[in-house]
Design brief:
The chain is mainly α and 449 residues long. The chain has 14 helices and six strands. The chain has a two-stranded antiparallel sheet with strand order 1-2. The protein is globular. The protein starts with 18 loop residues before the first helix and ends in a 5-residue tail after the last strand.
Length: 449
């Protein structure tokens, strides 16, 4: 006779939850994770400090991923997808207070001193009530979530320790795992009526210029020009992270799969910021050394059509343009002998392909869902982007450094088309030939293995 690896006597069967109770509690935890991810999407552009922004970027993705895991398990526990969707249309008073405040201290203290500790405790209680064997799928991902939540708290509390003390939200503003429906406010949720934000908030030491303002001349020497280039790239990636954070906060009509993928992109962009901060540091530059602008974020917030916003950012800027410019940045670093920066940029370019695939996939789904013509929406988004670009001045100053021309302004003969990336995005041969012709025949094909 063999012995089993687990011992049922370690738990009281009376305290174990059945399928129905398991699903009920997981549904409550699902709502909490969704609301926290939405709040992170709101606050990533609002909070000023760079360490907090980068921490929120990772937390945003991981909490969105937690919700995705729970959603999958709920469906396995026989909860219909239509019912799961209703769990994203309720909230707790604490979450609405954290959405409506403009005080970053209240948000941080509410999140770290009230919400996250209560959530961690509920997860641990839920794991203790999971029956062995039959509910191992829940236990497996719940243990991973617990570890993530502990890391969120550890990092977040270290950041909170450096901030001014203030009042936290009252404990009565939370959810209740023991209540039948979690004691949520039904029909209300974070992002139901998104709070506008024309420009992101950046570190106090950064002179944040509007998109229409001229930028200063490049310093004119190699070291100074490289510092300026790296500084520009840091804030180009930061505004991208802030845009995709808003995707998670704003697009509540979408399935959670959309928010999960958008949250991953926001985290990707935060990691790009970190790699470029490394580049800036290696060229002895510092954040705030130069002014910075967020033209992409400004235009994103000005466009009214949700489809055109997505096409402008995810299809044109991320897929059509950035897969080329990131390739050029990588190759330019190699020309300068900076192989480490080139290596980092190569990973970043790989991310841009998946970002463009996200845009192509979801923009077309949106058009189908809303009864809009994709080609017309693309033309409108492209025209809006060109109008906006015409309003803000190009960078001035000459430099021998090939990285001085940056981002979506690269066009015509300044642009090299990455044909391999375009094929991965699903572009037709005709569309690729048109792009190559517009670039004066400049193209590159790469081996992916």
């Amino acid at each position: 006779m063999t012995t089993t690896a687990k011992n049922y006597t370690r738990r009281d069967p009376v305290e174990l939850h059945d399928v129905r109770e398991n699903a009920r509690k997981l549904a409550i935890l699902y709502t909490v994770e969704v609301e926290i991810a939405r709040l992170a999407g709101l606050w990533l552009p609002k909070i000023r400090e760079m360490p907090e922004k980068l921490w929120l970027g990772r937390m945003l993705y991981e909490d969105a991923e937690h919700a995705m895991w729970i959603e999958k398990r709920l469906e396995e526990l026989r909860v219909p997808p239509d019912l799961v969707a209703t769990f994203r249309t309720r909230t707790a008073p604490a979450f609405k207070a954290m959405e409506e405040t403009d005080d970053p201290e209240l948000f941080m203290r509410g999140l770290l001193l009230l919400v996250k500790p209560a959530l961690l405790a509920d997860y641990q209680r839920h794991i203790e009530a999971c029956p062995p064997y039959v509910d191992d799928p829940s236990i497996r991902f719940l243990k991973r979530i617990v570890e993530d939540e502990k890391e969120h708290l550890a990092k977040g509390l270290s950041l909170l320790a450096s901030r001014a003390s203030g009042h936290a939200l009252p404990a009565g503003a939370l959810w209740d795992l023991s209540a039948r429906s979690g004691d949520f406010l039904k029909g209300q949720f974070v992002g139901q009526e998104p709070r506008p934000q024309p420009m992101p908030n950046w570190p106090q030491e950064v002179e944040h210029l509007p998109a229409v303002a001229p930028m200063p001349l490049y310093p004119g020497d190699f070291k100074g020009d490289m510092q300026r280039v790296a500084h520009d790239l840091v804030f180009s990636e930061l505004e991208a992270a802030e845009i995709f954070a808003r995707y998670v906060y704003e697009y509540h009509q979408c399935p959670w799969q959309f928010h999960y993928e958008a949250a991953r992109i926001a985290w990707d962009e935060c990691r790009h910021v970190e790699l470029l901060l490394n580049v800036l540091d290696r060229y002895e530059g510092r954040v705030g050394q130069f002014p910075a602008k967020a033209p992409g974020f400004e235009e994103f917030m000005q466009l009214k059509s949700p489809v055109e916003r997505m096409i402008m950012v995810s299809v044109i800027a991320e897929g059509e343009v950035s897969t080329d410019t990131q390739t050029q940045h990588r190759d330019a670093f190699r020309q300068m002998g900076d192989e480490f920066s080139a290596l980092l940029k190569d990973y970043e370019m790989a991310d841009e392909v998946s970002h463009g695939q996200f845009g192509e996939r979801w923009a077309r789904k949106f058009c189908d869902q809303m009864g809009e013509d994709y080609d017309l929406a693309y033309e409108n988004a492209h025209a809006a982007l060109e109008r906006f670009k015409a309003q803000h001045p190009e960078a001035e100053g000459e430099s021998a450094i090939p990285l001085v021309r940056l981002g979506a302004d690269e066009a015509g003969e300044k642009r090299t088309i990455n044909v391999t990336a375009k094929r991965l995005l699903g572009y037709s041969d005709e569309r690729i030939r048109k792009l190559v012709a517009e670039s004066g025949g400049r193209m590159v094909e790469e081996d992916t293995l």
